[in-house]
UniProtKB/TrEMBL annotation:
It comes from Arctia plantaginis (Wood tiger moth). Residues 59-117 form the THAP9-like helix-turn-helix domain. This is Transposase. Residues 126-255 form the Transposable element P transposase-like RNase H domain. The lineage of its organism: Eukaryota, Metazoa, Ecdysozoa, Arthropoda, Hexapoda.
């Protein structure tokens, strides 16, 4: 027999025997002495009618949270295990406020952010229309009322930092513009989202990588595909909302021209809407961008409204007059 100070120095057979002994000692500690009494007391409490009545009043999320805290008592962070429902609950908390989740993680027994990111990595993500999102959305809205299904489709481009990312599990390099004749680095992403008109809900449904702005013809094809996919879920889109970018205006004019041609053929009145598979959508430009456009034009141009002339100097005069009143002001800076 020889003594050693490290497990790494043991032979494979001795290492297996060492792990087995540790498991036996751990089980004896868990089910012996005070722990055995605590388990017996907890089992007896669980069988009482009073406890069952209290538990039955909890919601599913409340039961999951309490179960998560009770099962993690006395266990090290690295040894804790969580169910998928518990991870999804924590993921919802994290998405509401990452800083708030960091505080809750110090108070309660919760999975760390790395564990939550692994859950997200299990969701298949790819450019274009994601069938997983649409299937989940179709299942979610199946019990909604017809009023709650009214929605608008919003799309806009966001700027990205160019770079390449290799995904070993998929053997794919991300960072190029897909379906391009020559390799191009993606520095923008077109994001499409649906938002409820009569309900406070919203859901991103698709994204597309591009270099600069999305080409007009490509944007026309994307909008048609997205509208048809949204209609198949059971939602009823009523409007397309975007900013006043030149590419967006050109794509919407193409869709309007196609709708206008079909309306003239069928003897209908041209109302400026867009029709996709018989569903009409109005065009709404983003109100904050419209206000900013009016402000920019007033800086160097005058505007005629109901026979009266409006100047930028009028706004400056009102603000200066309001500043002379004192502490009580009608206009803010």
């Amino acid at each position: 027999m020889r003594l050693t100070s490290s497990v790494k120095c043991l032979t494979p057979n001795c290492r297996k025997l060492y792990k087995k002994c540790k498991q036996i000692i751990k089980s004896r500690r868990l089910f012996g002495g005070d722990n055995r009494k605590n388990i017996e007391d907890a089992t007896a409490l669980n069988k009482t009618k009073t406890f069952q009545k209290v538990v039955d009043k909890f919601s599913f999320m409340q039961r999951q949270f309490i179960s998560m805290q009770l099962s993690a008592i006395g266990i090290k962070k690295q040894s804790r295990r969580y169910t998928l429902e518990q991870k999804l609950l924590c993921l919802a908390l994290y998405k509401q406020s990452p800083k708030g989740y960091s505080l809750l993680e110090k108070i309660f027994c919760l999975p760390n952010k790395r564990t939550l990111n692994r859950v997200l990595q299990r969701i298949p993500m790819s450019c274009g229309i994601n069938k997983v999102f649409f299937n989940a959305l179709k299942h979610k809205i199946s019990e909604w009322s017809s009023t709650k299904k009214l929605c608008s489709i919003i799309f806009d481009e966001v700027q990205l930092s160019s770079g390449l990312n290799f995904i070993p599990s998929e053997d794919i390099i991300h960072g190029f513009v897909p379906d391009s004749n020559s390799p191009k680095f993606a520095d923008h992403a077109l994001v499409v989202m649906v938002r409820g008109i009569c309900g406070s809900w919203r859901q991103p449904i698709a994204y597309y990588f591009c270099e600069g702005t999305m080409p007009t013809l490509s944007l026309v094809t994307i909008l048609k595909d997205v509208i048809r996919a949204v209609l198949r879920t059971g939602l009823e889109p009523l409007a397309l909302i975007c900013d006043q970018g030149m590419t967006n205006q050109s794509a919407l004019k193409v869709l309007q021209a196609t709708t206008k041609r079909d309306q003239l053929r069928n003897g209908l009145i041209c109302d400026g809407t867009i029709s996709i598979d018989g569903n009409k959508l109005s065009i709404v430009y983003d109100p904050p961008h419209l206000l900013k456009g009016i402000r920019n034009n007033l800086l160097n141009k005058d505007m005629s409204f109901e026979g009266k002339l409006v100047k930028w100097q009028d706004i400056v005069d009102i603000y200066n007059y309001d500043c002379q009143i004192g502490n009580i002001r009608m206009c803010t800076a």
